[in-house]
Design goal:
elongated, TIM Barrel, three-stranded parallel β-sheet, Rossmann fold, cobalamin binding, 13 helices, 50% helix, 9% strand, methylmalonyl-CoA mutase activity, isomerase
Length: 321
């Protein structure tokens, strides 16, 4: 019990709002059960006190972006909110510019004020376990606790955490999870605003470059174990857009919108977003009466790419070679 009281747990916070609330509650449940199992007397005050989990939580860098970086403020605020609602003991909010530079005075001040706002203006520190009684969160808590305990037992059966680290099984599972998230972003099944959806078409990186992750150990110590992939979810999209910008010429994509109003607007929006994510200059239009008028406008704009935006039925009429 004496040792348990002195242990402090550090957690990361991801962007899945309700899942994060349930995660912290599940961790407390599991820790209380572990500590209680060492209580020979059963229900003693000493062990009951030791079963209280001391949690420090830090917002993620995995979903931070270089482009449209101020959206990172919304991401970290949502993450901090979920941790506060889960009742963690302390929170560190990551400055919004950490993905591309050493945080400056402004970003660090904003990061401090984000958590102070939750405490002083939103009063998140005044209610104990506000999520209690929520059917969804309660069931999610139990589900996470069960799955986490199954993983814990699996690791113990394999020789414990140190053996799992040496064998690389834990790193492999973490890397596979990260790979799946990056694939979801690449396929736009998971959205990163300003990066793989709704980019700022006129934004330029300028001197901003992604900050490489620094290993905490020397190469000498790393060579015997499998390493983790610390690349952010936005890294591949950012590399594509930075390469376009570095070429010195942004290809122009002209939206030749014609025909059915609803369908041409939908196709144009999709195409603008798709090409804008690669750093292309997009030229949208209100619509043309004829293909000839659209082609003439595209030539006048000196477009490198012309995207015909219309309905499926009308493509057969307008997209004639």
């Amino acid at each position: 019990a004496g040792i348990a009281k002195k242990i402090k747990f550090n957690f990361g916070i991801s962007s899945n709002y309700f899942l994060e609330i349930a995660k912290f509650r599940a961790a407390r449940l599991l820790w209380a059960n572990i500590v209680a199992s060492y209580d020979a007397k059963g229900g003693s005050d000493e062990y009951r006190c030791a079963a209280k989990m001391n949690i420090h939580a830090e917002t993620s860098t995995f979903n931070l972006t270089l482009f449209d970086a101020h959206v990172n403020l919304l991401r970290t605020q949502t993450e901090a909110m979920s941790a506060a609602l889960a009742g963690v003991d302390s929170i560190a909010v990551t400055p919004f510019d950490k993905a591309y530079q050493t945080p400056d005075e402004l970003s660090e001040r904003l990061a401090r004020n984000q958590q102070l706002l939750l405490k002083e203006e939103s009063h998140f520190d005044k209610v104990v376990d506000p999520a209690a009684g929520s059917y969804y969160i309660e069931n999610l808590t139990v589900s996470i606790a069960k799955q986490a305990w199954d993983i814990f037992l699996k690791v113990e059966d394999a020789g414990g955490f140190y053996a799992a680290i040496k064998s690389g099984s834990i790193q492999k599972d973490i890397n596979e999870s990260g790979k799946a998230r990056r694939k979801a972003v690449a396929q736009r099944r998971e959205i990163l605003l300003g990066t793989n959806q709704y980019p700022n078409f006129i934004e330029k990186a300028g001197g901003k470059k992604p900050v490489a992750s620094c290993p905490c150990c020397s190469q000498e110590h790393e060579k015997d174990v499998e390493t983790l992939n610390f690349n952010r979810m936005a890294s591949e999209f950012e590399a594509l857009r930075l390469e376009t910008e570095a070429s010195g010429k942004r290809p122009k994509a002209f939206m030749l919108t014609i025909g059915n109003l609803a369908m041409r607007q939908a196709r144009a929006q999709f195409s603008c977003n798709f090409l804008g994510c690669a750093g292309y200059e997009v030229i949208d239009n209100l619509g043309f009466d004829t293909v000839k008028a659209g082609v003439e406008a595209a030539l006048a704009a000196k477009a490198d790419i012309v995207v015909l935006c219309s309905s499926d039925d009308e493509y057969a009429e307008y997209a004639v070679p």
